[in-house]
Every structure is written in C-alpha cells, then in structure tokens.
Amino acid sequence: MRVGQSRGGEGAGQDRREEQGAAAAAVRGSEVGGSERARHRKSGFDPGWMEDPRFKPWLYNIANHGMFCRLCRQHKQAPKRGVSTRPFIEVGCMLFRSDYLDKHAATRHHQESVKAHAALIQAVIGGFKCLYHLTKKEHAHHTNYADLLELAELLGCQYFEKLKIGRTNYTSHRIIDEMLEILGTVVEEPILANISASVAIGLEVDETTDVSVKKQLDVHVRYMDKNGLLYSQFLDLVTVSDGRADTIVKAIRTILTKKNIPTQRIYGLGTDGAAVMTGMNYQQKQG
Ligand SMILES: [Zn+2]
C-alpha cells in the first residue's frame, strides 16, 4: 500500500536552520583543515550503526551518496523557501559521524516523521484487523470492507485517515486481495507446520467449476496433531486449464511443493471417483 505525506508542524523553521547548518557542514567536509579532513576520510560509514537501536529504524547508507533517513523521506514535509537539499532527506549526509545521526534524530522534522510513521502503522494494523474480522465471520469482504472502515471512523477511530490513499483506492479489490494474501500467509504458517509434523496425511481433491465455467481444483488435507486428533483443512483452490489427469497431477504437485507438504507421508486420497482422479492417484504414487 502506498502512503501519503504528512503535513509540516510548527518549529519547522528551527528544523531548517539545524538542517541548513548540517548541510553547510556536510559541504564544508571538503574544505576543513588537514588533520580533520583525514579523520573524516578515514572514518566512513560504520555498519554497526545499522544495529544501534537509536538509528536502526531509520538509517540507511548508499555507497557514494551518503546516509539517508527512511522515515523522513517517507513522510517528507515539503521544504519551504530556499531549502531543498536537506541532509538525510533530499541529499545523503556524507559526514559519517554518530553525533550527526543523533543531531538528525533530535530535529523536529524527524520527530514528526516518527510520529507519522507510528500512526501509519497503527492504521495499517487496524485495516488488517477489520479485514480479518470479515473473513473470519465469513462476510463478503470485498463489499463490506469499505462499510466497516466507515463505521470505525464514525465511532471515532480517526487513524484510518493516515492511510491517505483515498477512499476509492484503499478499499479497492486489488488492495484487499493483497492484504488477504498477507493475512493468509500469516494464518496458514502454524497450520502448515502442524500438517508437516503429522505422521500421516490424506488428500481430498474435488473438481469444481466457477461462475465463469473455469475448471478448479479444491484441495483439502486431512492430518493428525500430536495428540492424535484428526483435522480436515482447506489447502488451496486453483484454476486448471483442462480436466486431464496430467494437468491435475501437475497442479497438485505445485500446491504440495508450494505448501511444503511432505509427500512421502501422504497415504490417502479422497475423490469423487472420477477416472482422472483415480488415475492421478496411481501416477502420484509412482512419482
Ligand atoms: Zn529523519
């Protein structure tokens, strides 16, 4: 999802002065006296700063371009009159000193960016929670997501404004589908781990046809947890180009590989008994 820019706050003037000062110092880097210049040349970017909790959330370095602030660049407040080359934001800071990093972190601009980022994260998490709620309750998510966010805003939850990607966009089908894919991966991980740990696995494959008359394979898996309890779990629904046995085998192989299902522990196959399915069973065992 794309994020918008946050507005400038008060004190930006002070920020600009601080940053102008740092910019001037960065430019002066090439004019400083002999011994100091040698010290700067020798120092360079310290990779240890990337692990320092003070700098880790925002700092990155581009070889020959200097150090930048991820947060200030993402939540960039438009530079006002005359300042368009702020170090860490528009231009890299070439003075590789930790006190310059501290100085940047203390600027009003950076503090505002940190706040804007925290609000954005909160909004993204809120958006995911709303979508998760809809899917868990099996409500039609594409049609109800916008309404649910609207209700949340009506009840005083203002942070969705921070998404700032427009009502027509942040509830668009494409974004909802992307979010669902992410949610699916997170929810699926522990289930797949349980399936992998099962001593025996059974597959249930059904061929269906969707509204546009495309053939689809609906794959479920049966497995046992460490307490001996049996579960039946939906694994995937994939569109296949035709109903031939080798097409179906290929599709199932792809699913099993993608989901890391240990094929050597698949002992059973449940189908409606169609010839292509029972034939597939034979081929699968051979493979
Ligand atoms: Zn910053």
Automatic annotation (TrEMBL):
<dbReference type="InterPro" id="IPR057456">
    <property type="entry name" value="Znf_C17orf113"/>
</dbReference>
<dbReference type="InterPro" id="IPR025398">
    <property type="entry name" value="DUF4371"/>
</dbReference>
<dbReference type="Pfam" id="PF14291">
    <property type="entry name" value="DUF4371"/>
</dbReference>
<feature type="region of interest" description="Disordered">
    <location>
        <begin position="1"/>
        <end position="46"/>
    </location>
</feature>
<protein>
    <recommendedName>
        <fullName>DUF4371 domain-containing protein</fullName>
    </recommendedName>
</protein>
<feature type="domain" description="DUF4371">
    <location>
        <begin position="169"/>
        <end position="279"/>
    </location>
</feature>
<feature type="domain" description="C17orf113 probable zinc finger">
    <location>
        <begin position="56"/>
        <end position="118"/>
    </location>
</feature>
<dbReference type="Pfam" id="PF25431">
    <property type="entry name" value="zf-C17orf113"/>
</dbReference>
<feature type="compositionally biased region" description="Gly residues">
    <location>
        <begin position="1"/>
        <end position="12"/>
    </location>
</feature>
